[in-house]
Amino acid sequence: SHGNKEVFSCRGILLAVQWFWDRGHKDITVFVPSWRKEQPRPDVLITDQHILRELEKKKIVVFTPSRRVGGKRVVCYDDRFIVRLAHESDGVVVSNDTYRDLQSERPEWKKFIEERLLMYSFVNDKY
C-alpha cells in the first residue's frame, strides 16, 4: 500500500520492518513472490528493488516459489506460507488481507487469524 497501488514499493517493506525492529521485534519474516526479483515491466512497476536483496541477505525477506510453464508464470499461494509460519511460531500476521478463505481451511487458523491479524496503513512514509 506504500506505493498507492500504482507501484510495488520495496521502501514500504523496509519502513514496516524498521517500525517493528525499532520496537524490539527481531524475528521478522516478510514473504515476497520470487518474481518480484525479476526485471520490472511497465505494467508491473517496482521501486527500490535493491532493498529486497538487502533484506534477503539479512534473512528477513523470504521469496516464495514461482516458475514459468508454457510462457506463463505459475505462483504458489503465498498466504498459506504467511499464516502457517505465524501460527507455528506464535507470531502475528501483518497484512490488510483478511485471509477469509484460509479461516475455513483449518479450524485452528480461524481463531488465530481473528486474534493475530494486525492491519496497517501508511501516511506518506509513516507506517
From TrEMBL:
<dbReference type="GO" id="GO:0004521">
    <property type="term" value="F:RNA endonuclease activity"/>
</dbReference>
<dbReference type="GO" id="GO:0036464">
    <property type="term" value="C:cytoplasmic ribonucleoprotein granule"/>
</dbReference>
<dbReference type="GO" id="GO:0061158">
    <property type="term" value="P:3'-UTR-mediated mRNA destabilization"/>
</dbReference>
<dbReference type="InterPro" id="IPR051101">
    <property type="entry name" value="ZC3H12/N4BP1_RNase_Reg"/>
</dbReference>
<dbReference type="GO" id="GO:0003729">
    <property type="term" value="F:mRNA binding"/>
</dbReference>
<dbReference type="InterPro" id="IPR021869">
    <property type="entry name" value="RNase_Zc3h12_NYN"/>
</dbReference>
<dbReference type="GO" id="GO:0005634">
    <property type="term" value="C:nucleus"/>
</dbReference>
<dbReference type="Pfam" id="PF11977">
    <property type="entry name" value="RNase_Zc3h12a"/>
</dbReference>
<feature type="domain" description="RNase NYN">
    <location>
        <begin position="1"/>
        <end position="126"/>
    </location>
</feature>
<protein>
    <submittedName>
        <fullName>ZC12A Endoribonuclease</fullName>
    </submittedName>
</protein>
